[in-house]
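Researcher: I'd like a structural prediction for the single chain below. Treat it as a standalone chain; there are no partners to consider.
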Amino acid sequence: MQAATKERSIKSLSDGLTSYLARDQVNSVRRAYFYAEQAHDGQYRHSGDPYVTHPLAVASILSEMHMDHQSLMAAMLHDVIEDTGITKTAIKNQFGNTVADLVDGVSKLNKITFSSRAEAQAENFQKMAMAMAKDLRVILVKIADRLHNMRTLGVLNAAKRRRIARETIDIYAPIANRLGMNNVRIEFEEIGFSALYPMRAKRISAEVKKIRGNRKEIVGQIQTSLEACLERENLPGRTIGREKHLYSIYEKMRSKRKSFSEIMDVYAFRIIVDQVDTCYRVLGAVHSLYKPVPGRFKDYIAIPKTNGYQSLHTTLFGMHGVPIEIQIRTEEMEAMANNGIAAHWLYKSSDDLPSNTHIRAREWVNGLLEMQKHAGNSLEFIENVKVDLFPDEIYVFTPKGQIFELPTGSTAVDFAFAIHTDVGNACVACRISRRLAPLSEPLQSGQTVEIITAPGTQPNPAWLSFVVTGKARSNIRHYLKNQKYSESITLGKRLLNKALVNFGTQIDAIPEKEIDDLLQQFSLQTFDQLLEEIGLGNRMAYMVAQRLEKANPKNSPASEHKNDNDQSGVLAILGSEGMVMNYAKCCHPIPGDPIVGHISSGRGMVIHTDDCNNIAEIIDNPDKCIAVTWDPNVEGEFSVEFRVELENQRGIIATLATTITGAEANIEKISTVERDARFSIVNLSLNVKNRVHLARVMRRVRLIKAVTKVTRVKSRKIRKTIKTPLGSN
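Model: Treating it as a single chain, here is the predicted structure.
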C-alpha cells in the first residue's frame, strides 16, 4: 500500500515538473528520489510514514517555487548525510559537486559535542550562513525543510513541539521575512504560535471568526466605494480585503499594549494594478475619496525595503471615521511581496539577470559572513544575526545621496560601519542634516548623515552601549579584543622584565629551553600567551620571574645587583598603555602623585595613590602590589575630583564652569549640595594633565569672590564591613 502511495507521489511531482523542467532534468530528480528511498530504507518518521515522504514533500514545496532541478535533487537528499552512512563524496560521485555542496550546506552538524542546545543551534546556523554565501539555494532548501517539519508538528510531544516552534519564530520566520518570502513567514508564525500558545491562538481565532460576521457589511461597503472610485477615474486594478493573521494580532496586542478591539477596528485593503505609474494615480484617487491620516504615508516603491518589498502604504479616515489601511502595488510587486527571493526562480526567463531581491539577499549573506568572521563565538554571532533580522527599517542618505537601510534606533556609528568597517573604526564625529550631533543620537528616516573621521583613532568601548546593528557590534568587539590582547602582551613584557631585574637578568637573556619548559608547566602554547596572562593580572610577574631564576641558577641573586636607590626595577607609567592600565576611581591618581600598582585579575594593573585607604592592607604584599612611578613624558588626561564650597549667588555655577574650562580642564561631572540657605558645596570631576595643571585650576577657582574653600577629594574611605577592599573595582 505504502509503495503504491510513494509511487503515485513521485509520479505526481514528476508530472508537475515537466511544465518548467526539461525531461532529462526531471529524470535526475527522480533518480535522486530513488537513491534517497534506498538510503532511508527502514527509517520512519514520528507519524509512522516512511522517512522518504519527508524529502519528497520538501521537493514538492520547492517545485511550487519553480526551483531548478539541482535544488530539488538536494531536497531529496538533504538528510542522507546526517541520517544514513552515505558520505558527501558518494553523493558527489553520483550527482555532481553542486548537489553535494547543497546537501552538505543543508545537513545539520551532528558530529560535534555542544555544551548547550543554544550553542548547537548557533553553530548550525553559522555553518548554514557559510554555505549560503556559496549558494543561496541552500537557504531555500532549508526553509522548505523547516516548512514541512512545521506542517507535521502535531505528531511530536509537547516539549519538542514548543522547542521547534520557538526556534522557527526566532530564526526561520525572520530569515523568510528578510528574503521577502511573506507567505512562508506567515505560515511559520501561524503554526509556531499555535504550538507555543495553543490556548491564546484558539481564543484569538474564535474572536476573529466572531468579529468577521459583524464586519462583513462595512468591509463590503468600503470595497464597493474603492472599486467605484477606480472605475470613475478609469484606473485598472483589483481590490482585495486583507485579513490580519493571528500571530500579528497577538504581537501587536503584546508589544503595543493594544486591546483586540483596537487592532480589529482598522480595515485593511490591497489594490493591485498593472504598472508603477498607476500606483501613484490610484493613491491620488483614494486620497480624494477619503481624507488621509497625516504622517501615515510610506513610499516603499521609490525606496524599497531591505528585502526588496515594494508598495505604497497609506491610512485613510473612512466612513464614520473608520480607519482604513491601503497598500497599492503592481502584480509583479505582489508576487515579489509573497515569494521574495523565490520569485527569482518562479518568474525568471532563461536570459534574466538576477533580480534586485536576489542581489539584496546576496549582500545580506555576505554581511553575515563578515559578522561570522569577527564574532568571538557562535552564540555571539547568532545574537548579532537576531539583531540584524530586523522587521523595521529607517532610510538615511550620504551627503552624495546614496541610500542606506538601517534598523530603527540606529546611530551614526551604525551608519559609519554600514558604509565600511574602516570608516566605523576611524569615526570621531558626525553631522546629521548638516548640524553637528552626538554619535549616540538615534537617526530618523530621510536624514542626511556625514561621518567625520580622523587617522589613528579607534573604536570606543562606550559605543557598545548604543549601537544597534550586528555589523557595528561585532566589529567594535573584534577590534577591542585584538587591542586588549596586544596591550596585555606589551604590559606583561614590561612587568616581567621589571621583575627579572630583581634577579639580575632580562627576558632576552633567558635561554629558549627554559621558557619552553615553563610554558609546558603552565600548559600554554606560546610565550605571548604567558605575557598576556601576566598583563591581565592572571599570573604574577614576580612568581614567573622566580621560576625562571630557579631554572637558571647562573643568574646572580638580586642583592648582588641592586642597591636600595636603584630605580631600574620600578615600572614607569606612560599614560598610553590602553585598556589594561586602569586608574582607580577611589583616589583618582594623576601625574605628580606618589603611586603604587595593584595587579587585579582579569583587568591588568590598577594605579592607586600610595596613601589610598583601599590598598592600605595590601600595599606591602609583593604578590599584589608593585612599585611604579610616572614617566617624565607621561601623556593624556586624568580624572580627578575636587570640592568647592561657595556662597549662593545667581549664575555662580556658570562662572565656575567658565573659569575651569578657561584653565584648559574638561568638566566630566558636576553636582551641587546645599549646605544651608547661604552656602552650597559643588562636587566636580575634571580631566587634567598633572598636579601642576590641577594646582593652576584650583588657584583660578579660589580667585572667584563667592568661593570660600577649594579641596581635592583624594580617597573615599572604605566601609568597615569589607575585609580586603580593592578600590580598583
